[in-house]
């Protein structure tokens, strides 16, 4: 149901969307804590990963209770709702849709019956063998099972249904069996009445980390969510690992051999800057990317400005390396968030100005280096360049802290279709002309990889180089299960 919160939507122009992340997951096992509130704040820290729907499920030893709805975490939950979610174990989810439409019945955690009780599951990633898994569900349990029965068309509902389809198995045993048959990207947190579970695909495409509370344990998509609830980082959940946390402590088992292929785009854009990946903050990595960008694409200019906020650390690095002063030339409306309010045609024409506004006295008469994280369709950069020229900028040199995005992602990031990706159709010079800049430079792929300090073979770079580490789905598209279930 549409509802307003007085905020502006990020999707003022449906043709002008940046890359979309595919969800944040959070789980906590802590008998002495208010687990629902911890999960709320954990999801709040992960809101950037998914803004379409949010949900929390709580286990209290006897039952599992779930509450989920469309909207931001702060829109879905209030004090009264959270006070009804009482237990010692909880899992939470903030959703952006990759498989299955943006509808209430596809919100997570997904609930399902198992031989031993109930499971509630949240998923970050995207599966590549959903059609095969749907057949497997149909053969093992019928297609009228769990949330599939109520129109849930997500790959998450398939995993949940499969977890309940092994008679005589514990949830841990079923999970090990099921995950060995699932392909694609999946960082999962799930719970039953008493235990918390976490698992990660053999490639570890999406992040998932384990943290320690004084009297409990936390799993989360990013370390920043551990910080926010006061948990200490312990380690990553390993690719191909299943972790179970209950009154006996933490135990781990492998369901597949690890073949690490972490998402390179997490470093560029997706993860929070205060998250740690591979032992250092994403912010530090982005600053280093900016330094390399300055070495590869130097230019005579008066001021380096970021496109806030994901371009900020790379702009800092560019300024440090080039010696050109860093400044703030664009102000972002901090209260732009996702809502269900559609802008009127007049507002739509204002476009990017509702999100970003130039500081005229800073940019007027200057030769600018404008640093952004990526170009997908190019609409944003085109509008930005025009806006900065109108504000008096003398020259505009656009620098991008990722290589050209030429290929779609099948592992949980919704960029655009291949034909919509500007770099798929045009050379860098043509893109420069298309967005109206005086010059354009992208960071080189190898330089980007070096900046992460992660060895190249351990990274997925498919959206940049077209080399897919996991076989892409036979039928791509987020509505694949709408088709097979129709
Ligand atoms: S294709 Fe790109 S966005 Fe998708 S997982 Fe690989 S590196 Fe990340």
What attributes does this structure have?
six-stranded antiparallel sheet; single chain; binds iron/sulfur cluster; Glutamine Phosphoribosylpyrophosphate, subunit 1, domain 1; alpha+beta; 23 strands; Rossmann fold; elongated; 18 helices; 486 residues
Task: Describe it.
- With 486 residues, the chain is an alpha+beta fold.
- Helices cover 29% and strands 24% of the residues.
- The protein contains 18 helices and 23 strands.
- The protein has a 7-stranded antiparallel sheet. Strands 5-6-7-8-12-13 form a 6-stranded antiparallel sheet, covered by helices on one side. A 4-stranded parallel sheet has the order 17-20-21-22, with helices on both faces.
- Helix 9 packs antiparallel against helix 16.
- The model is unreliable at 1-16 (pLDDT under 50).
- The site of iron/sulfur cluster has 11 residues, from helix 17.
- In the C-terminal section; belongs to the purine/pyrimidine phosphoribosyltransferase family.
- Mg(2+) binds at residues 310, 372-373.
Q: How are the secondary structure elements laid out?
A:
Blueprint: E1 24-29, H1 35-45, E2 53-59, E3 64-70, H2 73-76, H3 79-84, E4 89-95, E5 110-114, E6 117-127, H4 130-141, H5 155-163, H6 171-179, E7 184-191, E8 196-200, E9 209-213, E10 216-220, H7 223-228, E11 232-236, E12 241-246, E13 249-254, E14 262-263, H8 265-270, E15 276-277, E16 280-281, H9 282-296, E17 303-306, H10 312-322, E18 330-332, H11 345-350, E19 356-358, H12 360-363, E20 367-372, H13 379-390, E21 395-400, H14 422-425, H15 428-435, E22 439-442, H16 445-452, E23 459-460, H17 462-465, H18 480-485
Parallel strand pairs: 14-23, 17-20, 20-21, 21-22
Antiparallel strand pairs: 1-4, 1-10, 2-3, 2-4, 5-6, 6-7, 7-8, 8-12, 9-10, 9-11, 12-13, 15-16, 18-19
Helix pairs in contact: 4-5, 9-10, 9-16
Iron/sulfur cluster binds next to helix 17.
């Amino acid at each position: 149901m549409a509802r307003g919160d007085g905020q502006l939507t990020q999707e003022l122009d449906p043709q002008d969307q940046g890359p979309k992340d595919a969800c944040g997951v959070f789980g906590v096992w802590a008998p002495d804590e208010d687990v629902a509130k911890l999960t709320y704040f954990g999801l709040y820290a992960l809101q950037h990963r998914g803004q379409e729907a949010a949900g929390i499920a709580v286990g209290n030893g006897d039952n599992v209770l779930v509450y989920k709805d469309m909207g931001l975490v702060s829109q879905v939950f209030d004090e009264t709702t959270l006070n009804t979610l009482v237990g010692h174990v909880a899992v939470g989810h903030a959703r952006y849709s990759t498989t299955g439409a943006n509808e209430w019945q596809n919100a997570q955690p997904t609930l399902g019956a198992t031989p031993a009780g109930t499971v509630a599951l949240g998923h970050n990633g995207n599966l590549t063998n959903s059609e095969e898994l749907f057949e497997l569900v149909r053969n093992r349990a019928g297609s009228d099972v769990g949330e599939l029965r109520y129109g849930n068309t997500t790959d998450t509902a398939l995993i949940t249904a499969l977890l309940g389809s092994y008679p005589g198995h514990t949830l841990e045993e079923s999970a090990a069996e099921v995950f060995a048959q699932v392909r694609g990207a999946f960082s999962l947190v799930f719970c039953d009445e008493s235990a918390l579970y976490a698992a990660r695909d053999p490639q570890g495409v999406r992040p998932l980390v384990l943290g320690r509370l004084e009297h409990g344990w936390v799993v989360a998509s990013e370390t920043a969510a551990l910080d926010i609830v006061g948990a200490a980082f312990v380690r990553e959940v390993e690719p191909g690992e299943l972790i179970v946390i209950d009154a006996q402590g933490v135990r781990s088992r492998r369901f597949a051999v690890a073949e690490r292929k972490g998402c390179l785009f997490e470093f560029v854009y997706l993860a929070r800057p205060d998250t740690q990946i591979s032992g250092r903050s994403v912010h530090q990595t982005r600053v280093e990317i900016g330094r390399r960008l300055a070495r590869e694409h130097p230019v005579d200019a008066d001021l380096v400005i970021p496109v806030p906020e994901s371009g900020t650390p790379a702009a800092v690095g560019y300024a440090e390396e080039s010696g050109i002063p860093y400044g703030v030339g664009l102000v972002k409306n901090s209260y732009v968030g996702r809502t269900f309010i559609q802008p009127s045609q007049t507002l739509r024409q204002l476009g990017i100005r509702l999100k970003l506004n130039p500081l005229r006295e800073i940019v007027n008469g200057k030769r600018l280096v404008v640093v952004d994280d990526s170009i997908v369709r190019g609409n944003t950069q085109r509008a930005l360049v025009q806006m900065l020229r109108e504000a008096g900028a003398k020259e505009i040199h656009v620098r991008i802290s990722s290589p050209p995005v030429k290929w779609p992602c099948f592992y949980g990031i919704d960029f655009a279709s291949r034909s919509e990706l500007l770099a798929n159709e045009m050379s860098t010079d043509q893109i420069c002309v298309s967005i109206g800049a005086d010059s354009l430079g992208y960071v080189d792929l190898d330089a980007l990889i070096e900046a992460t300090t992660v060895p190249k073979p351990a990274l997925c770079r498919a959206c940049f180089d077209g080399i897919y580490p996991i076989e892409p789905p036979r039928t791509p598209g987020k509505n694949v299960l709408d088709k097979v279930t129709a």
